[in-house]
């Protein structure tokens, strides 16, 4: 159970790891394209996907089967951006990786569903490679007692649950 919680936290950490468009340009992340998708074909995912090899677990909100491929879908609420946030792209990439490891089928793309817009994000070898680099970096940081703050965003600190105990908080 503790292992699952730790791994769960690990994938949550991915969500917050990449934030700026500068980082997106450096990593060459795909921007995502607006698509129409029939939500009736979406199947709820009941159990988390798990890769022992990667030490990674996570649960996309839905999986949709298209032409023999499984496409993960992540649902986001709140403000609809012009393009998907980097953190959302990395989270979706992690689900694509887990789908491939679990079912042996590589998703060609994943879907990020905002309240009134769907973006298809191609799961390219470049995105996979950027994700694996991030996972390796995070594993290295896991054993460090002092990891520098990765942003200059006071609003983010104001919303952070660790603000009261964090010695790098900006708020
Ligand atoms: S309060 Fe600390 S942990 Fe939270 S977002 Fe700010 S710097 Fe990061």
Would you mind describing this structure in some detail?
This protein is of the alpha+beta class and 171 residues long. It has one domain. The chain has five helices and eight strands. The strands form two sheets. It has a six-stranded mixed beta sheet, covered by helices on one side. A two-stranded antiparallel ribbon has the order 3-4. The chain is globular. The protein starts with a helix and ends in a 13-residue tail after the last helix. It binds iron/sulfur cluster. Residues 149, 156-157, 160, 162-163, 166, 168-170 line the site of iron/sulfur cluster (SF4).
Bound ligands, each once: iron/sulfur cluster
The H-and-E topology, N to C, reads as: HHEEEEEEHEEHH
**Total domains, how many?**
1
Residue share in β-strands: 15-25%
The stretches of 5 or more residues where confidence is low (pLDDT under 50) are none
Q: What's the N-to-C terminus distance? A: 34 Å
Q: Any idea what the radius of gyration is?
A: 16 Å
Q: Looking at the structure, what is the overall shape?
A: globular
Provide mean pLDDT, rounded. Answer: 83
Profile the largest sheet.
6 strands, mixed
Summarize the helices and strands and which ones pair or pack.
Elements: H1 2-17, H2 21-27, E1 33-35, E2 43-44, E3 49-51, E4 56-58, E5 62-66, E6 69-75, H3 86-103, E7 109-114, E8 117-122, H4 125-142, H5 154-158
Parallel strand pairs: 6-7
Antiparallel strand pairs: 1-8, 2-5, 3-4, 5-6, 7-8
Helix pairs in contact: 1-3
Bound molecules: iron/sulfur cluster.
Iron/sulfur cluster binds at residues 149, 156-157, 160, 162-163, 166, 168-170.
